[in-house]
Q: What sequence folds into this?
């Protein structure tokens, strides 16, 4: 039987069929193509500039670990702008399935940290908010308020990243969102009729919004499948334990829908992200974005009267405990005086 | 066993469970609710004004027949503005599965036409374009150009409606699009990254665009399922023969995806249409719409250099035949002098 050769180099046997382009690639060309895509994304959208102090958010999943690996490698190879400081951090949400705990091999992060000189630190919800995600969930559920654990985690984690960013003096926070995550986000925003949320989408969102540390997503044009293969062959540990909360998360269903659609339309994920980006541009170009205000409880930036964190804490009956703790972080003053 | 009673009237046994609201309805209350929704849609968006001359596009399916029935009934009941002229027309695409031919009982349209005083006429692609949809398809396919029959039908039918509108002096054309159609359209435009096309969406699209007869969709807030039940119990014939082209039409797959999503989120179709409407408003408010131009071949309004009809005809090698015929319609002069 003839082994098909790599469409790119023509020299090595093909190991991977890339549906979106129809190419058959050897691992060598596949890995180079993935790295090229990430570097091009960083350059084209100017995600990283000279002197940036970038925090890499490590969930423990393959995507954030691959991101840490790639940024470390790129800096070592001189492919990033000059004087870029890289740091990494994890957030321990404080429930048995916290992303942090899912990460079976935190020793790998330590190894990357040393190899690429990227200081790494773990923060807990407990130290940032005075309460854990489980406390919030129990508070809400005991009052008959049904909020998905992933929503609680998400709201608190976004705020946590901002607090950590201010503590560390970060200029940007890099997250491991891949093409599949981004395509799902577009579809979710559409299905929940959330036009406003697109102002936060796009390759370089939240930039120039007072009080928010800009987020960058260097992996957003790489398919999840390709990151998994890249990770596997580069010794990056793949998650061993799936979070049980995932099954009732709306993204879970969309993952399979997108996989099915992809069979007929191999570019559908790129197409969705392109749609989201056009809409993001439109929403900010046209200044339809609601100007940011300060939360009347904690002073953190928000689009309404009360930020989502305070809304959750209030509903969970944890407001006093949270605010008392929050004051000790001395972030309220920082925010109010800015 | 206790028979559940209608949630609305409490007097009659329930026959229908409305997933979007959780109501159990008797047929009486269901039918009244459907009629109320259509009348409210007409009034809220001012779809019909005094003196309007409205052409009802009859495909032969349940939706357009229900639309003709309802508009006739509403006018008879004095629920429409004064002096509204209603006409109905069908378009025979000229292939064995033309919507017109699928309609097993054209005698029903004749009956409605007489009962509600709505003149009815059939036009063929052959008389409007000088060629049939089959001619175009054969022309394209023989050159190895794969265009779906539904696309050919759609492009020519939209133009046909405009030509018929000008011939009959219509002020508006009413189509039978229901909530499911509209939700699918939003999803399709998103998935094909077609932001511009949203300028054409919305409750009352194409109004104030020179050369285009405005389209109105009075059934766009009624779920397809409810129209089918309404039709069945009002003696409106349901289509007996499914068009074989439907299986490879992208809408067909979306129909099932939406049905599955609806189980978890009963309002998902309304939500999608609301998203489409917000985007439609944004696209026209912000004047992102490309100003209309005239096709360099036929003079009909288009957003580019060449309209989609001429593009198809040219590719199919039918341009000369088509243009020669088109001149005899004397529409080019009408358009150019306007």
A:
């Amino acid at each position: 039987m003839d082994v098909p050769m790599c469409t790119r180099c023509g020299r090595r046997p093909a190991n991977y069929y890339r549906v979106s382009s129809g190419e058959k690639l050897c691992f060598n060309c596949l890995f180079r193509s993935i790295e090229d895509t990430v570097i091009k994304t960083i350059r084209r959208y100017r995600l990283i500039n000279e002197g940036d102090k970038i925090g890499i958010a490590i969930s423990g999943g393959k995507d954030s670990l691959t991101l840490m690996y790639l940024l470390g490698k790129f800096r070592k190879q001189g492919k990033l702008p000059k004087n870029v400081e890289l740091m990494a951090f994890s957030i321990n949400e404080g429930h048995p399935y916290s992303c942090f705990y899912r990460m079976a091999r935190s020793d790998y992060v330590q190894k990357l940290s040393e190899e690429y000189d990227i200081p790494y630190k773990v923060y807990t919800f407990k130290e940032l908010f005075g309460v854990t995600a489980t406390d919030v969930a129990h508070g809400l559920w005991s009052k008959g308020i049904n909020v998905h654990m992933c929503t609680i985690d998400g709201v608190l984690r976004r705020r946590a990243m901002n607090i950590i960013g201010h503590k560390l003096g970060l200029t940007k926070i890099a997250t491991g969102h891949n093409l599949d995550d981004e395509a799902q986000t577009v579809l979710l925003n559409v299905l929940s009729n959330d036009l406003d949320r697109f102002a936060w989408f796009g390759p370089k969102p939240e930039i120039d919004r007072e009080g928010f540390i800009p987020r960058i997503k260097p992996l957003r044009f790489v398919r999840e499948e390709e990151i998994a293969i890249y990770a596997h062959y580069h010794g990056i540990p793949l998650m061993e334990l799936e979070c049980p909360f995932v099954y009732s998360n709306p993204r879970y269903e969309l993952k399979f829908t997108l996989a099915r659609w992809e069979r007929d339309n191999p570019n559908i994920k790129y197409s969705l992200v392109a749609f989201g980006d056009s809409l993001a541009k439109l929403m900010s170009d046209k200044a339809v974005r609601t100007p940011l205000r300060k939360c009347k409880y904690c002073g953190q930036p928000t689009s309404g009267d009360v930020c989502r964190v305070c809304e959750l804490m209030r509903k969970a009956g944890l407001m006093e405990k949270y605010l008392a703790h929050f004051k000790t972080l001395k972030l309220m003053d920082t925010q109010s005086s800015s």
Notes: The first strand of chain B starts at residue 16 and ends at 18. The radius of gyration of chain B is 21 Å. Residues 45-290 of chain B form a domain with the Rossmann fold fold (CATH 3.40.50.620). Chain B touches chain A at residues 186-187, 190-195, 250, 253, 257, 261, 264-265, 268, 271-272, 274-275, 278-279, 282, 286, 288 (CB under 8 Å).
